[in-house]
Amino acid sequence: VSAGNGCGHTLLTPHSGTLSSKNYPGTYPNHTMCCWRLQAPPGTSLLLAFGDVDLEPSEHCAHSSLLLADPQTGTAYGPYCRNSVPSAPLLVTNSSTVTVLFNSTSHRSGRGLLLSYATSQHPGTHYTQEHVREPDPPLTMCFSVYCPAGCKDIHGDIWGNPSQGYRDTSVLCKAAVHAGVIADELGGQVTLSREKGITLYESAFANGLRSKRGSLSEKRLVFHKVCYLLFPACDDVLEVVAFNASSWWHEVDVLGQDRAWVAERAALSTTGHSWAAKPDAEAAWLELDLGTRRNVTGIITKGSSEQHDYYVTSYHVSSSRDGKNWRPYRGSSGQEDKVFEGNADSQGEVSNTFIPPIVARYIR
Length: 364
Fold this sequence. Notes:
By secondary structure, the protein is mostly beta strands. It has one helix at 172-179; strands spanning 2-3, 7-12, 16-21, 33-39, 46-54, 64-70, 75-80, 90-92, 97-104, 112-119, 141-147, 160-161, 165-167, 188-196, 205-206, 209-210, 219-223, 242-245, 249-252, 258-261, 286-301, 314-315, 318-320, 327-328, 340-341, 350-363. Residues 227-364 form the F5/8 type C domain.
């Protein structure tokens, strides 16, 4: 939990999380405070990674400070500020509960703070702001790191996309969310390789993140999805046996010609106009029949640019094994129906990943 008027981006889960001061990485405001209480499962201990602690210096850190306390053992860490920084980037505690307290008075400078944490079950936590640094000489390397929850909204850029890979100066865990190998609300273990770079990294919108178009780099990051053994071909494009929809638009153009925006035209590879529901239709839906139960790991959407600038900005997903009983998709958190961020124009493709995957015959 967190409380106070100085809290910035915060995502706390029992196994990992990310927290920052207000306005980070811009200057934190005067006369604010935030208290975060981190709670890990019983039998585990917390590991805290100091991504950035930049608080204006003062004697005994009296003007701005970061203080960590372990109520189970009575141990305190800090106070920290620019002239009293943590001695190591990683703090290993022996407690499942830690209180993080941030205070500020009047000051002129300072980015504030950025911290991430994980439990002792997940060693090797990757610092949320650190880039991958290339060894000398450059080598192709495979490695695994643990990314805490909350990396999607931290400061830092990513260049590239899931199919090409990412420029090696990209923020690693943020790129992992973009690539769809972890869900931002939970984090998780990431397996990737550092491979030969390419001339140009194309931008893409995926999983709520926009990557940038990047120039040549010597190396790139390629993320590897771990597929279920029962479904080894998890990157294949699934064949749709039949399309169905709540309604479709029967258009009569200015020349008096009929045009049917029927469900079958919803296939991504279709040229010309797409599917569209009746104008002003409420709760419109498109249904895909995959013929048999399949493992569905994601979805790609695109608008229709055929004479009309049509696209879907957000949507829900539900699935069924028999076409009668439907289950809404709630993602890895499982708390409420997930809203997927769709397209912002009719030209580009937008990818969203299902973590965990959906096993079903029908997708709506």
